[in-house]
Sequence to fold (213 residues):
Amino acid sequence: MTTPHLGFVHRYVPARRADTPTLLLLHGTGGDETDLLPLGEVLAPGAGLLSPRGQVREHGMPRFFRRLAEGVFDLDDLRFRTHELAGFVAAAAAAYGFDPRRVIAVGYSNGANIAASLLLTHPGVFSGAVLFHAQVPLEPQEAPNLMGVPVFLTGGRADPIVRPAETERLAVLLREAGADVALRWQPNGHTLSPREVDEARRWLATWMREEEP
Fold:
């Protein structure tokens, strides 16, 4: 159900399988807490799903942080909202009883950008991430330790919003921090394609099998 508790309006779907992680679903601009629930079920059937609604409004559309123009982020607000979201994940883990060490971010566009911000500034919040059409949200003052953290990253060669060079730069930043980055390019623009969803599903299934004791 949708609830305003824990600081965010959100949906939580308990895991149906004990061996699955919890997916933190982070929507794009104009989305809400219901948008990525079907995607989460496709990516990891039976996994727990935690889906918050962004708390910033841009012309009435929910976002996770403010921007000054297309591709120009309000970095002070981004840092504040990133810290706020990290606190929400910890509070939700305590409230719902899922393992905070097994949270995988799944973000699209604006949601992928704040997930990348969490990876770069709050290492340890996620055990992995699936980032669709993400760019560099900010340059951290200190390089995080993301040694061995798996990240699946996609970009569109014809994306008019996130330039391929930005996605490539994010991949470099994450790899320099030690993350195990799988970068997959799509011929499409900014739209989430069935092909990249299927590639992400297969990547995530492989990672989950390898994680099993």
The longest helix spans residues 75-96. The CA atoms of residues 7 and 84 lie 9 Å apart. The radius of gyration is 16 Å. The chain is about 35% helix and 25% strand.
